Amino acid sequence: MKLITVGINHQTAEVEEREKIFLPSKDLESALKDLAKTPPVREGVILSTCNRVEIYGLVDNIDAGEEQLKRFLCRNAPGQMERMDGKWYTHVDHGSVAHLFKVASGLDSMVLGESEILGQVKNAYQEAVKAQTTGKVMHALFQKSFQAAKFVREQTGIGRGLVSVSSVAVSLAKRILGSLNGRRIMVIGAGEMSSLTLKSLKENGVSTMIVSNRNYDKAVELARQFDAKAISFDEFPSAMRQTDIVISSTAAPHFIITREQVVHLMKERKQRPLFLLDIAVPRDVYPEVNDVDNVYLYNIDDLQGIVKENLDYRHSQLSLCHSLIQQKSERFMSWFHQIRSSP
């Protein structure tokens, strides 16, 4: 009886390869039931996210188990198993335990220390419980992985600091303007960065948001997703009179906010502070706007500098995290050896 993990992730395979064996949540229950009928699998959990597809299993034979699990993951993609030769990874016993603990703790994520993966691991486990593909070993393994992830985050700084430009932008806004409750915020542009920023703003309790874009239909579409108000591109300069924060991320080839505009605007605002976040490349806001009194301008380099500092700190915590994971893994394996040696 052996513990095994077979899979691929963002470090070993391109997205074009991962998507071929990706299992959407709607198909997970039936896949788990099929997995339970696959010899020599005794117990199994499937973790399928945009960055990884893995099976955690309890098998009677490692060689046969590894082969069958790879075939199982590629059962709907003929020939894919052979094409991904060299992209797979397999972990056994202690290696399998340590890998799951690292995954749950965010140590194996594309963004080091991110917390979303823990929820995805929990969902994968709950789906397996519902499909009745877990037993004594998988129950214990996944419960211990949740505890390990919590312990690692409590004892280290692996989750400290924001590591996305949009989150850092919102954090800076809060730091300069205090609470964002009751603030009026305008996002110029309707691309991915604008979407992520609106998401972060909404998560921070902002209720009054405006979206402006050259393509008004796109502004309407994005605004609808976040309960915001859409305005035409021609309207955004006048809307800045009542706006506390402007976050600009367009594809314009030139500055869309000039120093003269802002000087005139601040007189109309009676010098009420204005926070400008220019996360566009090329930049949307003329740099000398930052010289105007009560105007705070940050560009994408400023924000990425903060992101790098936070990521550097997280990387400095890796050695301690791995040490804690090692301790937790050894304790689990001690229990597993006892189970394996008993009748």
Structure report:
With 343 residues, the protein is of the alpha/beta class. It folds into 2 domains: 2-160 and 317-341, Beta Polymerase, domain 2; 165-306, NAD(P)-binding Rossmann-like Domain (Rossmann fold, 3-Layer(aba) Sandwich), CATH 3.40.50.720. 50% of the residues lie in helices and 17% in strands. It has helices spanning 15-21, 25-36, 62-73, 80-83, 94-105, 116-130, 136-155, 165-177, 192-203, 216-225, 236-239, 259-268, 300-316, 318-341; strands spanning 2-9, 41-48, 52-59, 89-92, 184-188, 208-213, 229-232, 245-248, 274-278, 295-299. α6 runs antiparallel to α7 and α7 (136-155) runs antiparallel to α14. The longest helix has 24 residues, at 318-341. The protein is elongated, with a radius of gyration of 25 Å. It starts with a strand and ends with a helix.
- The total strand number stands at 10
Q: Which fold does the CATH topology of the largest domain refer to? A: Beta Polymerase, domain 2
Oligomer: single chain
- The general outline is elongated
Structural class: alpha/beta
Estimate nothing, just give the exact number of structural domains. Answer: 2
Strand content: 15-25%
Q: Helical stretch count?
A: 14
Query: Reading side by side through the largest sheet, how are the strands ordered?
Result: 7-6-5-8-9-10
Sheet with most strands: 6 strands, parallel
Name of the CATH homologous superfamily of the largest domain? Glutamyl-tRNA reductase, N-terminal domain
The CATH class of the largest domain is identified as Alpha Beta
CATH architectural arrangement of the largest domain: 2-Layer Sandwich
Element pattern in H and E: EHHEEHHEHHHHEHEHEHEHEEHH
Q: Please, what is the average pLDDT?
A: 94
**N-to-C span:** 12 Å
The percent of residues in helical segments reads: 40-55%
